[in-house]
Design goal:
heterodimer; A: 11 helices; 79% helix; 0% strand; globular; B: alpha/beta; Rossmann fold; Alpha-Beta Plaits; four-stranded antiparallel beta sheet
Chain lengths: 267, 324
């Protein structure tokens, strides 16, 4: 199956180089430590009454760890769309894939899925390390209960990211723009601070990002709230999921058509 | 049914003019070409760089959409039925970077077998066969990044045969290869057609390659086909007595056309200060041309009649050498 073949290829190429894996882990952990210690320094401790009242999670390390890890994973399919497709262009392998019956859509979805899974492996390790460093209690039941929400979130992240895959084929060099966007999402999704501290219109804008709802839902489940407490977040994710997939598909088809007119570049 | 049918094919590209004059200009790369390739035929597109060969091959392999005209491969329209075309063809693209260098030879073939939907059991057998056929069986588990240019090209050909394509497209298959690898690739391509009955369409700017390999050749220049026939018939366009090679010393290449429009520089030897000129000049005219060269300051080292080649045909038709 072509999808599995792309994932297998990407995993082999990534995990074949241990230094790359170690460097990803270190970068992931260093950023997390900085954010959490900075937050604790501002709060004067790990507990925040404001966080508790506005999000239901008062422990700052728990709040930040979940937001950060989900942000990292949510932008990885976007990174795959931008840098992964660009890397195939630069390698000269994009056209070898496009000329096959697999088709470009399947290839880019598989590429995005691969990167998301690879980053999930890295972030799972960072999450456990973060939980140990900040003494956050972890239980198997909570992790299992979070999985359906995380799965739904991943699907929404994928759809959101694929919009960029189309753009990279036509515009070729949208990496810097995508990077700005990634950090904008980090800011607007309330990964490190509650959205209630932002102006109303900015907080409303943040609802357009799947990460906002995914992070909120996982946090609530993580502190032991029932599924009924996250109905609002699930409803938003179920609304955004088909919307972003539809927009992605249409923009991707347009980009593919345009790329076939002007050439895929690379070589 | 023809393997490839091309009717009045056109392709224009947008060319971006950078700042401060930022605008888009359209460049016509292919200007209404028509040709067809029979099943089991080895057909060559011969022409200089920028003639439109790669653009044509990219359209036929569904990588580009034409701006006009029609192209069919095995009866399927390359625009409307791209997926059907892709199932039945494969491509060896120009350059060495068409494989994953961080995968082994075996892993590359297994990956491409999967994306071509080759069933797993057949894929194993096919991969093993192909690795043996291209002489890479012993190196199957080595990463491609450690391969020579010739080995990479042999693996690229194996990759292109993974789905057992009915039509194989080869874009400059021997470009940049050493002599040994070039001979291997040429012999291998020939055997694919003669022994396995594949249809092959290749582009090249090497005349010898086109002449030795192809059943028929289309000479393409500035996006137009200027001649198309078997190599033997094409060479008949230049009469036996016409092909002349003149070796001169201490003469500027820029002055050649001033002496005679029919002459072109086919070889430069700067360390010796010599030029090799070639042209289609009959016996009557030859002494006059030589005299004009001498008067223009050239030292004549030799004048030889040559067996006409496809280069002579190209010179006669365009007034330029293929490498210009």
């Amino acid at each position: 199956m072509a999808l599995v073949a792309v994932i297998d290829k990407e995993f082999r190429m990534f995990f074949r180089y241990p230094l790359r894996v170690v460097s990803s882990l270190i970068v992931g952990l260093v950023f997390l430590l900085q954010f959490v210690y900075f937050g604790q320094a501002v709060l004067g401790g790990r507990y925040s009454a404001l966080l508790q009242s506005s999000t239901g999670v008062g422990d700052y390390p728990t709040y930040a760890l979940i937001g950060y890890v989900l942000w990292w994973v949510s932008v990885s399919p976007m990174e795959a769309s931008v840098w992964g497709v660009r890397r195939e262009l630069q390698r000269g392998t994009l056209e070898s894939n496009v000329v096959s019956p697999m088709g470009l859509v399947e290839m880019v979805v598989a590429l995005s899925l691969s990167w998301m899974l690879m980053d999930s492996v890295i972030m799972a390790v960072v999450f456990v390390m973060g939980a140990v460093i900040f003494e956050i209690p972890l239980s198997g039941a909570v992790v299992v209960k979070s999985l359906p929400v995380i799965g739904l979130s991943f699907l929404a992240f994928l759809g959101f990211a694929l919009v960029f895959a189309g753009l990279v084929m036509v515009l070729k060099n949208i990496g810097p723009f995508a990077q700005i966007f990634e950090f904008l999402i980090l800011f607007l999704s309330g990964a490190f601070f509650p959205l209630s501290t932002l102006p109303g219109w900015v907080a409303n804008l943040s609802k357009a990002f799947p990460l906002t709802h995914a992070a909120s839902a996982v946090r609530k489940v993580f502190v032991g709230m029932p599924y009924s407490a996250i109905e609002g977040e699930i409803a938003w994710l179920l609304l955004l999921l088909p919307l972003y997939w539809a927009v992605s598909y249409l923009s991707f088809r347009w980009a593919e058509k345009t790329a076939r007119m002007i050439g895929y570049g690379g070589y | 049914m023809k393997a490839v049918e091309v009717v009045n094919l056109k392709k224009s590209y947008p060319k971006k003019i950078p700042l401060p004059f930022r605008r888009v200009e359209w460049v016509e790369a292919v200007k209404g070409i028509t040709f067809s390739v029979r099943k089991g035929e080895l057909f060559g597109l011969l022409g200089p760089n920028g003639a439109g060969k790669t653009t044509t091959i990219k359209i036929l392999t569904t990588l580009l959409e034409p701006s006009g005209g029609e192209a069919k491969v095995l009866g399927y329209d390359v625009v409307k039925e791209a997926r059907e075309v892709r199932r039945r063809i494969n491509l060896v693209a120009e350059g060495e970077r068409t494989l994953y260098w961080r995968l082994s030879a075996y892993e590359n073939l297994r990956y491409f077998a999967s994306i071509y939907h080759v069933p797993k059991r057949d894929a194993e057998r096919r991969i093993n066969e192909l690795l043996k056929m291209v002489g890479l069986w012993e190196r199957r588990n080595d990463l491609v990044m450690g391969f020579s240019r010739g080995m990479k090209q042999r693996l690229a050909i194996a990759k292109a045969l993974i789905n057992d394509p009915e039509v194989l497209f080869l874009d400059e298959p021997t470009l940049g290869l050493d002599v040994q690898s070039t001979i291997f690739v040429r012999d291998f391509v020939k055997s694919l057609v003669k022994e396995e009955g594949k249809t092959v369409l290749l582009t090249t700017h090497y005349m010898v390659e086109a002449e030795k390999l192809c059943d028929r050749i289309a000479i393409i220049d500035h996006g137009k086909i200027i001649a198309m026939d078997t190599p033997q018939n094409l060479k008949k366009l230049v009469r036996d007595e016409e092909a002349v090679e003149i070796r001169v010393k201490d003469f500027s290449p820029e002055k050649v056309k001033e002496v005679d429009e029919r002459l072109v520089v086919v070889e430069k030897e700067p360390e010796k200060g010599t030029l090799v000129l070639r042209g289609s000049i009959d016996e009557e005219d030859l002494p006059k041309v030589v005299e004009r060269l001498i008067r223009a300051g050239a030292k004549i080292l030799s004048v030889e009649k040559k067996e006409p080649t496809l280069e002579d045909v190209f010179i006669k038709l365009t007034g330029r050498a293929l490498r210009d």
